[in-house]
Design a protein that fits this description.
heterodimer, A: 115 residues, mainly beta, 7-stranded mixed β-sheet, 4-stranded antiparallel β-sheet, 50% strand, B: 110 residues, 6-stranded mixed β-sheet, globular
């Protein structure tokens, strides 16, 4: 069964450094998302992406964050200058096109630790 | 107040039935989903209701009443592997943006 993959599984970085989190969504999906989950808290929406542009972003997704789909398969989240409070699990998700809004398929996540 | 309200924890024995209730704010509502998450794992889709009524998928069922802004997830014939967090999730727009509740920790005991 196709699945969303994410790399790396764990990223440790120093405060102020740039990080790029990578995702490969399911191949025929058209809508892509990033969510994050701070340890012990709920999953929070960051951004949705469709047709090579951001369709919506949350208040968390400030100008330190950016997303890109550089080729036909990868979907990346970049944090330009990491802060301690960016430490969280970051999940990528995707879903097929159409009007059906049910299932989103989540990747296994990247645990980001900012020191 | 919170956009989605669900209990924080439920404990039940193997073989029992558990119902997790969820109430939500009605602004920007496209549907209610339920996701399961085991410790450290990815949220996994369980069920979705866009219209009133009951959806059944094996041992799991989900119900929605839009007029009451209320839904529930029913877990039947509980198994030890069902110990996990269960999230009530609202779809808030046509792009599919998901808003998660705080989650209900289900603990299944022998």
């Amino acid at each position: 069964e196709p699945e969303v993959t994410q790399t790396p599984s764990h990223q440790v970085t120093q405060m102020g450094q740039e990080v790029i989190l990578r995702c490969v969504p399911i191949s025929n999906h058209l809508y892509f998302y990033w969510y994050r989950q701070i340890l012990g808290q709920k999953v929070e929406f960051l951004v949705s992406f469709y047709n090579n542009e951001i369709s919506e972003k949350s208040e968390i997704f400030d100008d330190q964050f950016s997303v890109e789909r550089p080729d036909g398969s990868n979907f990346t989240l970049k944090i330009r200058s990491t802060k301690l409070e960016d430490s969280a699990m970051y999940f990528c998700a995707s879903r097929p096109g159409g009007t059906n809004l049910d299932t989103q398929y989540f990747g296994p996540g990247t645990r980001l630790t900012v020191l | 107040g919170q956009s989605l309200e669900q209990p924080s924890e439920v404990t039940a024995v193997e073989g029992a039935i558990v119902q997790i209730n969820c109430t939500y704010q009605t602004s920007g509502f496209y549907g209610l989903s339920w996701y399961q998450q085991h410790d450290g794992g990815a949220p996994t889709f369980l069920s979705y209701n866009a219209l009133d009524g009951l959806e059944e998928t094996g041992r799991f069922s989900s119900f929605l009443s839009r007029s009451d802004s209320y839904g529930y997830l029913l877990l039947q014939e509980l198994q030890m592997k069902d110990s996990a967090s269960y999230f009530c999730v609202r779809t808030t727009d046509s792009w599919g943006k998901l808003q998660f509740g705080a989650g209900t920790q289900v603990v299944v005991t022998p």
